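Curious: why this fold?
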Amino acid sequence: MQLKAILVDDEKNSREILRNYLGKYCTNITIIGEAENIKNALQLTKEKQVDLVFLDVEMPYGNAFDFIDQLENPNFEIIFVTAYDNYAIEALNSHAAYYLTKPISIDNLIKAVDYVTDIKIKEHKLQNTILVPKISKIEGKITIPTQNGFEVLSIQDIVYAKADDNYSILFLQDKTQKLVSKTLKYFEDALQHNSFVRIHKSHLVNINNIISYHKGSGGSVVLNNGKELSVSASKKATLLSHFK
């Protein structure tokens, strides 16, 4: 699948190296623009149909996170390319699809492009189609601890779960909530074979309750209770793999 990309880096030499690598090793990437600062990068994303942005962190007149903060419902993926390795966590929390450090490893560049390409292929297949989970609803139960013992819930009644430090909040079909003294990782492990998928560090959702998916740097899902939840870029490919 061909992807349209822009390169954002204040160093002309860095843009040239990346441009040459992409031209030689990632032939499905077409570079449609380059920018040396945030202002020009924002203008390019408004003027052109962009699938992917290769984004340096430190630049004059604002850094990569200033750029991300000013985006409105972006439909493209972001790959960070930087000489600094201390931005990785912040980059992933900002819905970056991948994080590359300079000097760029060709192998890692290919992996990053392949990862984004796979996401875009899945999004393209889903566009204008009805989401149909591969896994049907499963009758089953799960016990949750209470002060006096435990409570039994039907798994299919759980719409989604939200992390709350060392607790989790379960949101149910009847619009009630259950605060449980278990981490979200506990429920992720317990429900991994029951149509549940982790879409964000804070959210675990029942895919049978997803009614729509909205594209974006990480994207978001809308559930049948009307709630819209963000999807982190690192979890997007896993989520999309659950749908035809």
In short: Confidence is low (pLDDT under 50) at residues 132-138. Helices lie at 12-25, 38-47, 64-69, 88-93, 106-126, 184-190, 233-240. The first helix runs from residue 12 to 25. The radius of gyration is 20 Å.
